[in-house]
Amino acid sequence: MSRKRTIDAFFGAAGAGTPKPKKPRDISDGLHETSRDRAHLDGLDTNINHEVLDKAPAKSAAEELGASQITPGKSNDFSSYPAYPFPIPHLPPALAAELPSWPASLGRVINDQPDLDLLYFEPYVARGGGGGGSARSLFEFLRAELPFYRVEYDINRGGTSTHIRTPRWTTVFGLDDTSRFSSANSSGDGGGGDTSKILDAKTGRDVSADKFYTRYKPRPIPKCLDGLRLSAQEATGCEFNFCLVNYYASGADSISFHSDDERFLGPLPAIASFSLGARRDFLLKHKPVPPPPGGEHTDTMKNAMSKPLKLPLASGDMILMRGPTQASWLHSIPKRTGKNATDGGRINITFRRALVKPGTDNYYNYNVGTGPVYKWDTVNREMRVWKKDL
């Protein structure tokens, strides 16, 4: 059986019923979600697409978060899970106390270009004061406490093998819609019994040995990130089950033009993208499209294809890309040079919804891989290989 037929068989009729978003609580219209990360993000173009399914509507942040997540926690509270390299602390009490007040501003709709639909929060995470406010605190906390990876991989194009070293630090958490973690608490806090099993979302059958879950062990979103996920769901009306985190150590770290349009995200996907730390330009440009039969593109379309839209994302900002945006537009974070190269670092957190198993395997392959775990060294102020204490 060919790969294409295998993928199409897996899809079945899933694409026929796209999950409908909830009504957002802010000034925006209806919404959706998105994906990313593969060789084309690192300067090469590949087409490795996968699949789709659907799920019940998301609970509200208040329902899912629970009082324990929206009130200050103890400083020694951690999220633990067998697939984590080490326990991940909960948010510091001050940040946990502020989380229910986010977003800190209303979302601004940007849809004045062909096929573009964005919702821009400036900011979402509060900033201000000499220390940069909550946005700066969240940046420093996540950089210091999350496990990171520098994924390397080989691709073959036209008979030529190329070795890729991802030009940024990455990590990922989550599981696609078809399955769930067996833990009673899905945010990596245990729950008794064997918490390492993965169960079918509909039947409860153990699917831990599925080929899409065995190459890399999926892991739940830790509580320190899950609270932000639930907040984003309530603010946008979208549902998210994956969290990707990129750390750009300096202006030399980048991500090239790409779109998050993998089939495993379904049609019209939406992605909530948070920026923390250094300000970086976010560029968008329309994908090339042929002119209409017997005519020419409008001036608006010519401008969209030739001149990128630039948004200077500051610490705490969040941009939601939704609707036809991923199908029609490319986006990137370009390198910075000269005096701007040393910028103190930036963290990008993206929430998206993977609908089928191949999405889970894809995300862990390109954001965790098989290399060493890195952790921020607060003394030397750099990422260093983490070694487990004996």
Automatic annotation (TrEMBL):
Composition-biased stretches (Basic and acidic residues): 24-40
Annotated Fe2OG dioxygenase domain residues: 239-355
Coiled-coil parts of chain: none
Stretches that traverse the bilayer: none
Annotated stretches, region: Disordered: 1-40
SUPFAM superfamilies linked: Clavaminate synthase-like
Highest taxon in the source lineage: Eukaryota
The protein's name: Fe2OG dioxygenase domain-containing protein
Native species: Apiospora marii
